[in-house]
Amino acid sequence: MAVNLLKRLTKREPDDRLFEDLCRDIGPEKVSRDGASQLLYSRDGSTFPGGVPGVVCSPETTDQVISCVKAANRYNRSFVPRGAGTGLAGGAVPCDAPIVISTTKMNAILEIDLDKQFAWVQPGVVNLDLTNALKGSGFHFAPDPSSQQSCTIGGNVANNSGGPHCLAYGVTNAHVLAVEVVLPDGTLVLLGDTSEHTSGYDLRGAFVGGEGTLGVATRIAVRLTPDPPSIRTLLLDFMDVEDAAQTVSAIIASGIVPAAIEMMDQRIVNVVENFVNVGYPTDAAAVLIVEVDGLEDGVKLEVEAIEEIAVTHGARSVRVASSEEEREQIWKGRKSAFGAVAQVKPGYYLHDTVIPRTKLVEVLRNVYQIADKYELIVMNVFHAGDGNLHPLLIFDPEEQGIMERVFSAGEEIVQASIDAGGVLSGEHGIGLEKKGFMEKFFTQDDLEAQRLLKKAFDPDERANPFKVLPSGASCSEVNHLKQLPDGTWI
Amino acid sequence: MKNLEEFQREVGSTGAVAVQGGQTHWDVGGILGDGVRLVSPPAGIDSFNPSEMTVAVNAGTKIEDLNNELSTHGQEVGLEGPNGSTVGGALVVGRNSIRKNRIGSIRATLLQAEYINAQGKIIKAGGPTVKNVTGYDLCRLLVGSLGTLGLIGQVILRTRPLPEENIWLEGEVFPQKVRETCFRPSSLLWDGRTTFVQLEGYGLDVNSEASKLKKLGFRERGKECPIQIPEFRHPFISDSNLQEGVVDVYNSIHYCSREPRALEHSEEVLLLGRRMREIFDPERRLNPNRDPYKAGP
Fold it and tell me: Is there a single domain that holds both residue B45 and residue B186?
């Protein structure tokens, strides 16, 4: 464990004075430490059992965020920036009884400049709210994670979030032009600029995807992408999963970069169809949703080419949405997938790895075998076009010993992905979930280099400790230390 | 042919070193200086996987050679530079192409890098897949770093499909009108009087977009950029009076004959950047006389 962090764990100020300071600095109505807030902010969208927040703050201005961070420095405490808490890797789970800085009340769209194609937003703006605000303008914000109805753009920046349409348009990093950040020592800094001039280190690019361990984003300039003049959505169905996977590889190999290629296997198709009834073929082994966009003639050519590739690779049918309503129906099924699985079992663990697109067949086969070995139900619904797997392990959390099997299966899925030339995460991040796996992919020297980046931003290891990089202690061990009477020094 | 381990030995762990590419941007961010040992990264394509749309290539490979190989499979890479420019050189200088709309930003082109750090160790940054959020993104720091954080030896790059058709048009119309008329032209240049547009993509799309521009008075000018682009780059301020040179509208860059100047950065950014360099290279042995913050845009 790092020396600075160890000092903090063993010599901590009691919460009372910190709480009073924060009430004075940002207003008592924005500070809480009652049981409800402790519970609410103890976890995120992951399966990780709750951490323990120290004090929860909900600042409304950049100055108030600075006050929170400065208080953390004065009292030698950690802090955790937090958006909507929809993350799936435990990135927002509070370790080391930190000040939780929830940015959800900083939710204003500050400026939309259609001429220069950017918008300034506060970090608490919900992803879909920006999309809705841009409707009819001819522009949109491209990253569209599945949680876009509730996740915030600040959270998207922290996780470098993806989504189905990132295949052609790139993940969040490609859509953030500048970000105003409160560094862990309380300094306010603007990284990047709206004209994308490249000079000096790309600190903006390094900050995006930092999982809240490099500072707090307080203002973000996002790129606005022109709406394509033409969009076509295809639903392809296959009687063999491997045919579907080979179709994905063949589409990419043909030089077409669709806006999205999503794959769903039979199990998930069935539960989704039962849930929302959008007309998916329930007897198919797998379906692909392929979307192409651009200028009218090119889109027509790509639709024809994809139809031909799909049929050559064994597609039983190809349905091209003939109306906006039909297109929405096709997407509605995909977007309802995670809600739909509750029909089968009450719990799920959603994995996230990336593999070379040419290895889809091989790795999917492995995923099914691993699930069988651990007697688990696995459903696959994922961003096939960029090789981003999302095996969904379905289970009943009440079942004795189930989590051990789920975690063991998960580790084998990660290993199978790495063995195939893949990486640990495509869009959920490392957080607490995968920091123990980092050594599977990086050498100690590689990890040491990443520690240097963290050190430059956060020399005192104050921001969101115990995340991303392997360390000597886990969050649960740290939180165990905190199970002491209020006010006790530890 | 030199490999990564031989490059590692050449860099060693002591003494000031500077990496030599095609020397096409040799003085960007500062001159070489005395007492600095020159090293060269390996060259050549390691592996090209057309169906994955990625290529593993050594940093000393000339961009032209790389694109020649990729073009045999209808692909190209989002790097550009004058004749002789190398992959590693283009990455560490970090400038976007005027065709950024088509080939993507240079920062998004680099997926994985293996570099030699200040202690002489081989470090892997990023990963080989087109999507990846595994840990901190050191690749972002390497692009535009002028080799001050590590010396890039090998990289994995994202490739793009080559366009089926490519034409340039020019007309005495403001660039804004083109933006309102066309969907994402590849390049958009303006010399204060004439606008130059590059359209790339499927032949049918290019022709239909060109027809719209011709109705505005644009004329076709062939496949090559019809205007000489001056050497030096300055930030383009939209209300500035364009006396000479050419503006790259999408990148907000004003190319002209005036000597370039460093961009202004806030004290806080400079402090963070300086700290980054000191931590990565405490003895300042990697390209010691170059400073990314003294480079122009």
Answer: no
